[in-house]
Amino acid sequence: MSLRSLIPMARMTTRASTATPRIASMTQLRFNSTAVPSTPPASLNEGEKHLYSKLFEKFQPTKLVVEDISGGCGSMYQVEVVSSAFKDLNMVKQHRLVNETLKEEIKGMHGIRLTTKASA
User: What is one Pfam family matched by this protein (predicted)?
Assistant: First the structure.
C-alpha cells in the first residue's frame, strides 16, 4: 500500500471525526437548560465540593463542572462555569471574576483550567 493510497482514507477519517463534536455539543446544549443543584454532587471529592460550593454561591450558574485533574491530590482543577453573571463581559473579565472568587484556593494549587460562558 502506497502513501498516496492512504491520503483519501485520512481525509475520510478527518471528515467523520469533525461531524461527531457538533452532535455532541448540540446534545450538551439541551442538558444545560436544567438547573444546577446547589449542593455539590456526592461523586465529587472534598476539594471539588469546596470549589463547587464557592462558585455556586457567587455565580448561581446554569452549568457548573469542577474536576480534580491532578489525580486526586488537589493541585490542578478543571472548572467550567456558565452564568448570567458573565453577560456582556469578555472572557478575560469572566476569568478574573472566577479567579477573584477562588483567590485563596488558587494559592495552594499548581494550576486551574477555566472555561466560562455567559448563559443565554
Answer: BolA
Q: Which three cell numbers stand for residue 79?
A: 472548572
Q: Are 56 and 92 in contact, with CB atoms under 8 Å apart? A: no
C-alpha cell at 19: 461531524
Q: What is the pTM for the complete model shown?
A: 0.70
Cα torsion 91, 93, 94, 100: sign = positive
Grid coordinates of 26 = 448540540
pLDDT tens across 60-69, in order? 999 999 999 9
Q: Parallel, antiparallel, or unpaired: how do β-strands 76-83 and 111-118 relate?
A: parallel
Q: Give CA angle at 68 (83, 40), nearest 5°.
A: 55
Those residues with Cβ within 8 angstroms of residue 45's Cβ, 6 or more apart along the chain or in another chain: 68, 72, 74
* 3-state SS assignment for residue 76: strand
How far apart are alpha carbons 52 and 28 in whole angstroms?
Answer: 20
